[in-house]
Design goal:
Helices cover 56% and strands 6% of the residues. By secondary structure, it is mainly alpha-helical. β6 and β7 form a beta hairpin. The model has no long low-confidence stretch (mean pLDDT 95).
Length: 516
């Protein structure tokens, strides 16, 4: 939730230029959405082509045939509309906890953007209805489980589409109600679907991409918090700056590595105690010395995944695809979620590693054998007091949990539709796992940050840089020095709230314009 994203007030969909920050602006901050007039001609022409196919009785998958294994069955023109509504009704079988409102909003936006490209044969009015739902706050109830991630996110998108039919359930103005009632109250028309329209609404990768985009955004934020937190941990552990010398990183020129090393140098600049530390030892442990290499690799992963996501969110991902130049209707596999699935697993591993190295830094601060002189468990009066002993337990639990979620979902597949759909991506599972890991990561970083500030106070000789001092003050404004054991839960909750808003990194960026 950076300053730039919060300031995006309007997003215009043209099928070509949607970016991650715009998705977040709509999903979280309710930026207004509109459809670019530049899309009208292609949308209307593709719809006219579908109507011509039905009128002329051509045999085209999903328009005049059934779906999947039922593609062998021809459907008469008098039944083509019923075929589309039956598709939605029969596919809304997702189960589990409803997706968060922000995820559903992102999913609706991404689907509208894909349809706006004019290759799907859907009426413009349906796209505009999806956009109206976003602008007026009608949010379908979409259970999170049930997508194989090939033939698209069929079940989740069917639950989204149900509300356009006046069915299903939705949240409107904070109240859960039947979908038709939500649409009536919001003044949005409901529809009977025509040929091709049901397939156009649910054949795509928008659920996995929505979850993944929000997870990407939060992980990107977490990398900045991780650098800031690590610099304070370095103060608590009397760490050396020599491992961050730009010459080291110039000879191994990964972009993320050099960026993180630069961030740490900026954060520690003008700190008298960091200058004094130079003579204490020759080198630090990996959890400190290899911050640029580990944090930097996560930055590089994010860079790659952004490219994949922004390609996907501006792509045609349904089937069949209508090409207006020669009226071809081609059946392919653009709905297959493999590109998203692979990078979601990659991002999961990256997020898990960022949490892992954070927990190792936390362990060094609470372990008297590793902390370079701090009291055991950061307790001023150890023995009667346990201090931050169990904070490390909790962080370790989250890191171990992440290892389970980081097992790649994309290496699994299970056949469906009578083996017609015999290889699937599991991309939505991969995205959901990544979402969990990123959430755990924030909690691990919160423990590290809380411990680092405690360690700085106990060290007594730390003289922070100006940027570090501001972060220290923000932590101490919500978490007091832990002098003796008391209920830690409120402090843990407070530090988790602090790092999940934008206050820390935005303040640092204002002080250090070159921090990224």
């Amino acid at each position: 939730m950076n300053h730039l994203t919060e300031n995006i007030r309007r997003v215009t969909l043209d099928g070509e230029s949607l970016r991650i920050e715009q998705v977040v602006a709509v999903a979280r901050f309710h930026a207004t959405v509109s459809l670019s007039p530049s899309t009208y001609e292609a949308i209307d022409a593709s719809r006219a082509l579908v109507e011509r196919i039905v009128r002329e009785g051509r045999t085209v998958y999903g328009i005049s045939t059934g779906f999947g294994e039922f593609s062998k069955i021809t459907i008469g023109s008098d039944q083509s509309a019923q075929l589309q509504e039956n598709l939605i009704l029969s596919h809304c079988v997702a189960v589990g906890t409803p997706l968060p409102e922000e995820t559903v909003r992102a999913m609706m936006l991404l689907r509208a953007n894909a349809l706006s490209k004019g290759y799907s044969g859907i009426r413009r009015e349906l796209i505009e209805a999806l956009i109206a739902m976003l602008n007026k706050g009608v949010h379908p109830i979409v259970p999170e489980q049930g997508s194989l991630g090939a033939s698209g996110d069929l079940a989740p998108l069917a639950h989204m589409a149900l509300v356009l039919l006046g069915k299903g359930e939705a949240i409107y103005q904070g109240e859960r109600m039947p979908g038709g009632e939500a649409m009536r109250r919001a003044g949005i028309p409901v529809f009977h679907l025509l040929a091709k329209e049901g397939l156009a609404l649910i054949n795509g990768t928008q659920c996995m991409t929505a979850i993944g985009t929000l997870a990407w955004y939060d992980l990107n934020r977490a990398t900045e918090i991780a650098d800031i937190t690590a610099s304070l941990t370095m103060q608590a552990l009397t760490a050396l700056l020599s491992a961050f010398d730009p010459r080291i990183h110039a000879v191994r020129p990964h972009g993320g590595q050099s960026l993180v090393a630069s961030n740490i140098r900026l954060l520690c600049e003008n700190s008298p105690s960091m200058e004094r530390n130079r003579t204490l030892r020759v080198q630090d442990a990996y959890a400190i010395r290899c911050i640029p290499q580990v944090h930097g690799a996560v930055r590089d992963a994010l860079h790659h995944v952004r490219h994949v996501f922004e390609t996907e969110m501006n792509a045609v991902t349904d089937n069949p695809i209508l090409f207006l130049d020669d009226e071809s209707v081609l059946s392919g596999g653009n709905f297959h979620g493999e590109p998203v699935a692979l990078v979601m697993d990659y991002l999961s591993i990256a997020a898990a590693e960022l949490a892992s190295i954070s927990e190792r830094r936390l362990e060094r601060m609470v372990n008297p054998a590793l902390s370079n002189g701090l009291p055991a468990f950061l307790a001023p009066d150890g023995g009667i007091n346990s201090g931050y002993m169990i904070c490390q337990y909790s962080a370790a639990s989250l890191v171990s949990e992440n290892k389970v979620y980081a097992h790649p979902a994309s290496v699994d597949s299970i056949p469906s539709s009578a083996n017609q759909e015999d290889h699937v991506s599991m991309g939505t599972t991969a995205a959901r796992n990544c979402r969990r890991i990123v959430e755990n990561l924030y909690s691990v970083l919160a423990f590290e940050l809380m411990a680092a500030v405690q360690g700085i106070d106990l060290r007594k000789t730390c003289e922070l840089s100006p940027a570090q001092q501001v972060v220290y003050d923000k932590v101490r404004a919500v978490v007091p020095f832990y002098a003796q054991d008391e209920e830690l839960r409120p402090h843990v909750a407070a530090i988790n709230t602090l790092i999940r808003n934008t206050e820390i990194e935005n303040t640092v960026k204002q002080m250090l314009p070159d921090f990224h």
